[in-house]
Amino acid sequence: MKVFRSSKVLLTLMLAALLIAFGTSSVFAAKAAPKQKNIILATTTSTQDTGLLDTLIPIFEKQTGYFVKTIAVGSGQAMKMGEKGEADVLLVHSPDAEKKFVEDGYGINRRLVMHNDFIIVGPGADPAKIKGVKSSADAMKKIAQAEGLFLSRGDNSGTHAKEKSLWKKAAITPAGQKWYQETGLGMGQTLSVAAEKKGYTLADRGTYLSLKKNLGLDILVEGDAALLNIYHVIEVNSVKWPKANADGAKAFADFMVSKNTQKIIKTFGVDKYGSPLFFPDAGKKDEDLGK
Amino acid sequence: MDLIVQGIIKAFELIVTFDPEVLGITWLSLKISGTATFISLFIGVSIGTAVALNNFYGKRLVISLINTGMGLPPVVVGLFVTMLIWRSGPFGFLEILYTPYAMIIAQAIIATPIVMGISLASIQNLPPNLRLQILSLGASRLQMVWILIKEAKLPLLAAVMAGFGGVISEVGASIMVGGNIKGYSRVLTTATVMETGKGNFDIAIALGIILLILAFIINALLTQLQQRHYPR
Predict the structure, then answer these.
(1) CATH homologous superfamily of A117-227
(2) Which residues 113-172 of A have a C-beta within 8 angstroms of B?
């Protein structure tokens, strides 16, 4: 009797597991779109953390029938994925690296989508007295002189690239200094670390605004032309990577610069944060921004 | 403290209102980790038993390797699986990177050594004379193995629980090979990471609580099975 029972137990267990396995495969099969329908979008964390992509992508998928796989990483890693042909289209904000990416033949059809700006945020007490300083490079200098704690992304993201360019402009090498710490985390988490440690950091305005309620960090420096944060969409070169979904990439890039999408970008976040998080720029030139 | 309370309230809200997105994420977590555990059960128990019952040169080394595998870091598994299945990798033609399938594979790799190690130990732990006894009663070798596995039912169910617990709570590999795609490969753990990044701590805590509840239900069911005949 006991043997009979325990084998029944085992059988039930296995049946249950089988059921799960079969249920799984059938559900997945129903959901998986045809291969060429998949688009891998490599993008920065800021477009996901602000919720912009959650708004735009369902519209795109509905219009075109494509299925977008959004992989939110830093701009640096996104471009690395593009270089290897592991992504089809990029939405990134690291202009110098992007230009090189296109020049090296990895990407085509780089188009301006939108911008917002970077801000230097820090604790209200502002130990380095940078509040209201006009030039971002001067502000960085002051932070270094006062040895105020600065949290760097340290992850080759677009924000990190911008931060490095600001240090360069200020003629300061922060790496290895005691007051300079690299988090290696995304923007949202780096802001949380800065808030916790009462340090300064460079952030994109979109992510800052969407997290503001929990942070207790103030905007200390803003409005400098050097702090522009510009997003481009780039299609991965399918000549170099035949496996890349060129049609899908083009469709997505076209969608990002289309009139309707630009209109959505323009008002995105107004209801929640009182001001837009991004400014649509399709068709403009980089040089004309911020004027 | 407020945040934690808010998180608990939020979790309650999401559960009682049957929030479709959270429900979908929870169901997907269960399916992926359940399938992965199921696969690991087959591979783990069979290899574990085979190693336990056979004597061969280098057996101790193999056992050490399996036991090391029980602590396999999920991110390392994620990294290797990613490199194997990305488009330019050896299994790129399968086109399964950033799909639930890739997550099942990675999780199965994580769970298998856990199941294998525990089943190996539990079969080895059976009285050595039992084998001879079964064989002398006229059982074939296959029947003998089956009876041994049944005898070790208790620790084997513990192996299932350990394997399942290991993968349902795992985030590093899942986010790397699954990509945390909304409505497709987003599971409880990867959603928790994302909501934390977004600063939605209440939702993140809520997802964590739901994960705990799910793990508790599964383990309670398995424990029910395991402890059925105890105490006598």
Answers:
(1) Periplasmic binding protein-like II (3.40.190.10)
(2) none
B153 reaches A (C-beta below 8 A): yes
CA distance A49 to A31: 25
pLDDT in tens, B32-88: 999 999 999 999 999 999 999 999 999 999 999 999 999 899 999 999 999 999 888
Residue with tokens 């003629």: A171
Q: Where are the beta strands (DSSP E) in A19-62?
A: 38-43
d(CA B32, CA B10): 25
Cross-chain CB nearest to A49 (options B150, B160, B198): B198
| Axis crossing angle, helix A2-31 with helix B20-53, rounded to the nearest 10 | 130
Which positions 14-33 of A are in contact with B (Cβ < 8 Å)?
A: 17-18, 20-21, 23-24, 27-28, 31-32
pLDDT at A14: 53
The helix (H) or strand (E) run that includes residue B30 is helix B20-53
pLDDT tier at B148 (50, 70, 90 boundaries)? very high
A41 DSSP assignment: E
Q: Model confidence over B181-215: pLDDT tens digits? A: 988 999 999 999 888 877 788 888 899 999 999 99
Structural domains for chain B: 2-226 (1.10.3720.10)
Provide the 8-state DSSP code for B54.
-
Contact (CB<8Å) B199/A188? yes
The confidence score (pLDDT) of residue A1 equals 41
What is the C-alpha separation between A200 and A196, in angstroms, rounded?
Answer: 11
Q: How high is the pLDDT of residue A142?
A: 93
The list of chain A residues with pLDDT below 50 reads 1-4, 22, 24-34
Q: Is A70 on the interface with B (CB under 8 A)?
A: yes
**Which class for A193: exposed (0-12), middle (13-18), buried (19 or more C-beta within 10 A)?**
middle
B197 touches chain A (CB under 8 A): yes
Residue spans per domain, chain A: 35-116+229-284, 117-227
Strand partners, A203: A119
Task: Map tokens 């990416």 to a residue.
Answer: A101
Tens digits of residue pLDDT in A219-236: 999 988 889 999 999 999
CATH classification of A35-116+229-284 is 3.40.190.10, yes or no?
A: yes
User: B118, exposed or middle or buried, with CB in 10 Å at 0-12, 13-18, 19+?
Assistant: buried
pLDDT of residue A181: 93
Q: Is residue B177 scored above 90 in pLDDT?
A: yes
